[in-house]
Amino acid sequence: MSDVSKDVTDFHKLQPDRKIAIMGILVFVFVFAILIGTYMAKKGGSLLTIPGKKSETSQTAQNADATSLTMAANPAQLSVGATTTVTVSLSQTPVQAVDVIVNFDPKMFRASNIVNGTVYDDILRSEVGNGQVIMSGTVSPSDPTNLRTGDVFSFTLEALATGEGTLSFDRDLTITAKNGVNTLGSAEETKITVTQ
């Protein structure tokens, strides 16, 4: 303790301009330490990272927990007036609930007949709109841990005009939820060719 009191006494004996310089250095070190702490907190707590390694690891973890949605039309080629069955499937990470919105050109196709698949026990909403198919499904409240992958639902699509039509997921409104987190990773569109 005598060393500290000696240092304080020596500090008081310094000229005023040197006291200001020392105080400035202390303030600079304090502010610099706060900035480094804030930077480390944003980076996940590590100041030393191997370039590319952290983002690669994070991307791998993110992909491992992601849910994939796909659509398949059977048949994928048909004539005007014919119908095809479009099946929406869920793979990779099973989830507790989904809100799926499929968009299509209403001048080219007419949708109908939404049928539940094997993934969810309960359909909360199934609706066909102008150029959209909407389906919301969830696991049974009596068995919320019964998570599955497979066919979520299917619907019938009638061809109205010739050409190549695209069915796509509305990425802004389509959600795959697990423990309150949207796990949607890939959501692949499908194409249907309509001939005369």
List keywords for this structure.
single chain, 196 residues, alpha+beta, Immunoglobulin-like, 2 domains, 8-stranded mixed beta sheet, 5-stranded mixed beta sheet, 3 helices, 43% strand, elongated
Describe the structure.
There is one protein chain. The protein is an alpha+beta fold and 196 residues long. It has two domains: 2-48; 67-195, Immunoglobulin-like (Sandwich), CATH 2.60.40.680. The protein has helices at 2-13, 16-42, 53-64, and strands at residues 67-74, 77-79, 83-92, 97-103, 109-116, 122-129, 132-138, 150-159, 163-169, 175-178, 181-182, 184-187, 190-195. The strands form two sheets. Strands 2, 4, 6, 7, 9, 10, 11 and 13 form an eight-stranded mixed β-sheet that branches. A five-stranded mixed β-sheet has the order 5-8-3-1-12, with no helix packed on it. The radius of gyration is 30 Å and the shape is elongated. Mean pLDDT is 86; it is low at 45-61.
What's the short version?
This protein has 196 residues and is of the alpha+beta class. It is built from 3 helices and 13 strands, in the order αααβββββββββββββ. The radius of gyration is 30 Å and the shape is elongated.
CATH classification, class level of the largest domain: Mainly Beta
What is the rounded distance between the termini?
97 Å
CATH architecture of the largest domain: Sandwich
User: What is the fold-level CATH name, i.e. the topology of the largest domain?
Assistant: Immunoglobulin-like
User: What count of helical segments does DSSP give?
Assistant: 3
Number of strands: 13
Can you give the helix content as a percent range? Answer: 25-40%
Topology pattern, helix = H, strand = E: HHHEEEEEEEEEEEEE
Structural class: alpha+beta
Summarize the main sheet.
8 strands, mixed
β-strand amount: 35-45%
- Taken together, the total number of domains comes to 2
Overall pLDDT metric:
86
Silhouette: elongated
Instruction: Evaluate the radius of gyration.
Output: 30 Å
Low-confidence stretches: 45-61
